[in-house]
Amino acid sequence: MTDASYWVELFQSQQRLGGGFLLTRRYVLTALHCLRGLTSLDEHVDIVLTDGSRLAGQVCRHDKDADLALIMISAAYEVLLPIPRAGVAYGGDDWHGPYRPAASEVHLRGQVDSGTAEYLCEGGGVIQALQLTAHQPLGDYSGYSGGPVVKGLPEDQEPVIVGILLEQAPDRAAADRAANVLFAATIGEAMRRFDQFDVEHLMDVVHPASSLPQQAVHNQELTVDAAASSAESWFDRIDEWSQRRLLDPSQVAELRFIAVKAAMERQLRGDDA
Asked: Which InterPro entries match (predicted)?
């Protein structure tokens, strides 16, 4: 199984709230209902990494309609863990969830029933979502909310996050049980819901200045400008594909994010755009 150190657990004091994952080195994405009523901005939470490290964070944004929340990691902490790339899932793809609510619980895995589609979530908003089948008929999946949906199998070489688990479908034959059908908001949906992810901000969160070699720090402004120029050229192509209806809005958002990360990494390596 490849490293899955990007998922986290959220606590307030000693109360476990739920799961989430590192969307960038500065932000954790989770389901709003996992915060159990902590809807005020600037509410403080503890972020516990897979190695047991405990970081301070605060709720910086939430979207009730989409049942999504964004938690900012305190600037006093530096997260150097690798962040998986975002991607797009299609019907028939395998998926798995590295997060589980307790060590005694199973890891979820299954198949994507259909690609991105509109879905009326319990928050009341229409979101771009993935419908998933889980191979594990647990009857209740509520503890898994907020965890990442990862494309492919656990043994695949590089994790690609395609969504965040939000809801379970009820079993129509037994109202007190859930069917093994789950719904996840796409990463693109989260990107659109929160305005923290413009080009300049992404440059900073993808490669914080404090984690760069000294020479790279010295040239940070030039690097960001060059990477932004490279990313913008890709944005033009992505927009063209969108106008030709080759991509849906969620795919556009996800590909923009991927383009920014790739452009920044190329510039830091000194590669040509």
From this structure: Peptidase_S1_PA, Peptidase_S1_PA_chymotrypsin, Peptidase_S1A
Domains of the chain and CATH, by start: 7-73 (2.40.10.10), 85-189 (2.40.10.10), 198-269 (no CATH)
Please report the pLDDT score of residue 273 as a whole number: 47
How many Å apart are CA 148 and CA 150, to the nearest integer? 6
Look up residue 250 and give its DSSP letter: H
Rounded CA-CA distance 146/179 in Å is 18
SS3 at position 157: coil
pLDDT value, residue 196? 67
- The reported pLDDT for the residue numbered 229 is 65
For CA atoms 132, 133, 134, 139, the dihedral sign is positive
Q: Which amino acid is at 114?
A: S
- First vs last C-alpha separation in the chain: 33
- Its pTM stands at 0.74
Question: Which tokens go with 227?
Answer: 């990477």
- Name which of 131, 135, 94 is nearest 115 in CA terms: 131
From the list 187, 186, 158, 184, the residue with the least C-alpha distance to 257 is 187
pLDDT given at position 121: 93
Instruction: In whole angstroms, give the CA distance from residue 204 to residue 185.
Output: 25
CA distance 107 to 136: 9
The answer to whether 90 and 115 are in contact (CB under 8 A) is yes
What are the two backbone dihedrals, phi and then psi, of residue 20, each rounded to the nearest 5 degrees? Answer: -170, -170
C-alpha span between 267 and 229 (Å, rounded): 11
Ranges of residues in the chain with a pLDDT under 50 are 1-2, 200-201, 204-222, 273
Tokens describing residue 224? 């960001």
> Dihedrals φ, ψ of 209, to 5°?
-60, -35
